[in-house]
Amino acid sequence: MIHASPPTIGIIGGFGPDTSAAFCARIVQHAHASKPEHSPAFVVDFVSVPPDIASKAIAGSRAAGKILVAAVNDSIRRLHTTGVRSIALPCNTLHLFADDFVLPSPLRLLHIVDAVLLELKHHHVKRIGLLATGLTVSSGLYSCRCRRQEVQCFVPSVALQRRLNKEITHFVSTGSVSDCCTTTFAAIFQECGNQEVSAVVLGCTDLGGMLERCGLACPLVCIDSMDVLAKACARHCV
Predict the structure, then answer these.
(1) CATH code for the domain of 188
(2) How remote is the C-alpha of 238 from its chain's centroid?
């Protein structure tokens, strides 16, 4: 008789769909790197996100983000019935509303920003350039936490942030990058270089996939929030 390991992690997917699928694959990769003979056990609940609400949240609408919290809580309730002990949400922007998540005991949230800050501390990074959605940037989700750890946080200029918002929206809705995506990233990396940052933080889980599709590598030390959270999940799965 085969005795399967019960799932310990519940993944809330769908914000956006392509990145959620890549996130699950990344968990498996990190788990196998840690324990090659071990298959990680986790459960995924995919949420269908209205494109218009997603695009408004990306552009900076807190009201749109609030609307999505109800979908997150519905997903948490479904995952709770499976017996998982931790929840992971591979979407930085929605962590702005983490206090509104209803987590029945003994569930806990693996907070993506906290995971990134631990990574920064591990690498002794004290000056970052943050690439993220408009709402993540304007809310101070990263900058406030960085300040408490005495980490300086620089963000793109207003014009470049608008361009980045459009590129993220395009990727989330189509799974592809626009013809302007490479030049947008290059301009932002140039700004980060001018600020003499120690590392670039991809504070939106879609950005790594976007860079990959552009065939572009970050010219600076790059910390991908999606990869950091996937590592944290893998540690709980093995």
Answers:
(1) 3.40.50.1860
(2) 22
